[in-house]
Each structure stands twice: as C-alpha cells, then as structure tokens.
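Minutes, structural biology subgroup

Action item carried over from last meeting: produce the structure token record for histidine kinase (Pseudodonghicola xiamenensis). EB confirmed the sequence was re-checked against the source entry. Recorded below for completeness.
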Amino acid sequence: MSFQWLKHYMPRSLYARSALILVLPVIVVLLVVSVAFIQNHLQGIIRQMTYNASRQIEFLIDQVDEAPDRGAALTRVEPMLPALQMRLRFLEPEEVPPAFIRWFDFSGMHVRKLMRAAVPQMLALRFNADSSVQLFVDTVHGPLEIGFHRSLVTVSTPHQLLVTMVAFALLMTVISFLYLRNQLRPITRLADAAQAFGRGRNEPYRPGGAIEVRAAGHAFLDMRARIERQIEQRTLMLSGVSHDLRTPLTRLKLGLSMLEDEAEAAPLLRDVDEMQRLVETFLEFSRGATQAEPEPTDPIEMVRAIVEDAVRAGKPVSLGALEGEGKVALRAVAIRRAVENLIDNAVRYGNRALVSVLLTERSLRIRVEDDGPGIPADLRAEALKPFARLDPSRNQDKGSGVGLGLAIVTDAARAHGGALRLAESEALGGLCADIVIGR
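Output recorded by EB:
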C-alpha cells in the first residue's frame, strides 16, 4: 500500500515536522486514555449510581400509585424525601415540559438511556444548567415531577482527571518543544550557511549541537574550504596563463605591423587579434562571478540599461515584458556580463534578440530569446560546459566563439544560487536562455 499521497499534506519545514512528530503521539494518547476512562470507569460509575436512583424512584412511584389520591400520595411519601434527597409535585398533562440535555453533556445522555430502560413510566428528563434534574413520570394520579441534584446519578466532577491530564500534557509538550527547538537550531544554522555559500556568500559559521550535527558542520566547513581553494587555483592558473600570453602576442603584433608587405601581414594580424580575443575571454572566465559582494540591485533598470547600450552599439536587440518591481541582492557586474554574453550569442547566431524580465516574490528570471537555429535538447547540457563547441547546430557564417560564453553565464547564475536554463523560444523560434535566481 502506497502512502505517497500523504506527502501533499505533510508540513515542509523541519520545525513543523518535528512539532507534528512530538504533538501527534500526545494527542493520540490523550484520546485513547480519555475514551478508555469514559467507557471503563466513568460510565460504570454512572450506571451504578443511576441504578440506585432508579430503584428509589420506582419505590416512590409504587407508593404514589397505592395512595387513593394526590394529597394522600404526597402525605405518604413526604417523610421519605429528605433521606432520598428528592422532591415531588404533581402536574397536569399539558404542564409536562419537553426533555432537555445540552449537546455536550455526555453523562446526561448516558443517564437518560439508562433511566429509560430502568423506569418505564418516564415521560421526560431534563438536566438543567444549575445542576438540577427533573424527571417526569406517569402515575395513576397523573404526571409526577421528581426533582433531585445531578450528583445522585452522575459523578460531580468527571472532568477533573481529563483537565489535569490535558494540562500536564500541554505543559510537557511546551517544555519538549522548547528543548527540541534548541536541538534544531544548529541544523537550521548549517542549512542557512550552506544556502548562503551556494549563492556566493561566505557567512561565518561555527558547528554546534549534537555530535552528528557537529560532524556535518565540520564536513561542510572542509568542503567549503576545498571549493574555495579550487576556485582560487583555477583563477590563478587561468589568469597567469592568459597574462603570460599577452606579452608575446603584443610583440608578434608589433613585429607584424612593421612588415613592409601589408598583404602578407594582414592574415597574420587577424590571427593575432583572434588570439588576443581568446586571451581576453579566458581572463573574463577566470575572474568568474565571485569578486564582489552582492548588493541590492534593480534588475529591470539594469536590463533596460544593457539593452540600450546594445542598441547604441548597433545590435538588433529589443525589450520584451518587464514584470515586477523591487530589488534583488546581485553582483551587478557579473549579471551584466552574463546578460551581455547571452545577447552576443543571440545576435551572433540569429537575426534579432528579445530580452525580458520577470520578478516575483520568490525568484528573478532574465530571459534572452533569438530567432536562430537554437540548440537541440540532447546537446543543451553539453553547451553549458566550458570550451564546449556546438558549431554544427549553429550558424557558421556569423562566427564562432571559444565555448566560454554560456559557461560564464552559468558561473554567474550559480554564484547567485540560481541556474541557466536553455529551451526553445516560443516567441521567436530560436534559443531561449533563462537566468533564474531565487530571492
């Protein structure tokens, strides 16, 4: 039997799930104990008390029936009433009121059931709010009202045990939840630190809590340190290689420019320019998206400025829908570089580009679409890797890059805890590239 459908009704947070695990058994135990107490103890006492009261009532009815008239009947039973703690009076048939028991008076309902079986002459039974009970029975002299206190047929304080049990259960639950919250706090701090690091922020974190949580915290710190070392080594390596290549390239360019045969030097100069462009791309990739701290940025204004700059540069770019308002913590330089790379790819492989922004309470989406050939679905994951060249699926007559454009965009998105998603553009028919960042 599958219980997958229960997942839709379960709480999502760790606090809520822990509270459910803590509170649910307490509620079940309270219900089981309450039902067992009512059925096995309380109802048994009420049954015995009602049986005793019904025998006394039957005795009074027999005494009344044996009397010649109402006056004689009252005179006959009057000496017995103080000992029985009851009172009697005769009524006319039309004076008999309807039965009355409050909906939550379970003891009264049980007494009514038992009294109806024990006293066949019963006409109606009323449990009043002042704890008085009125029993109306039929006699040979007409309807008779028998009044008594409900303590004769029910336990006077049946709720004391239940109230005490519920009060102590609530007290222990609160104490347990306070202790549980202290145990869960190190886990939430670890989750916050991991989430912040995933979004490119290095927040201070010190392991605490239980042994297992401390072990996970130390493992996270070791992992974070290794990742930072790898990023630093990658940056230093690419920066060093690219920087060292600049000097010989500059000498080559200077030497070629001094050749007398310009026709012979022109193709070589183009090769040198291409190599310099590759070096600049390597440097851009090596810098990555982790050089600045995130700052509150208006993504709509930033994208609008990027598109205006692209239009001034003669690129066929237009603005699409700009939905939402507010600011998001972004590394503006890295996101700007990422959007510019997407626009460059769009106009390189297509005839026009369309840029749109959707800002919601939960996420930021920057979308760049083109009318080019797009990227097949089975090659999109490969396209996000550094130095990936998917020229067979793109236009060759508009030039090709070094395969770092989408990798730079992916790095920028991941540094903000987001992702780059590639799909087919519904509006233009080409590639649709979405930078999605959670808020």
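Discussion: Confidence is low (pLDDT under 50) at residues 392-400.
Next step: EB to file the record with the rest of the batch.
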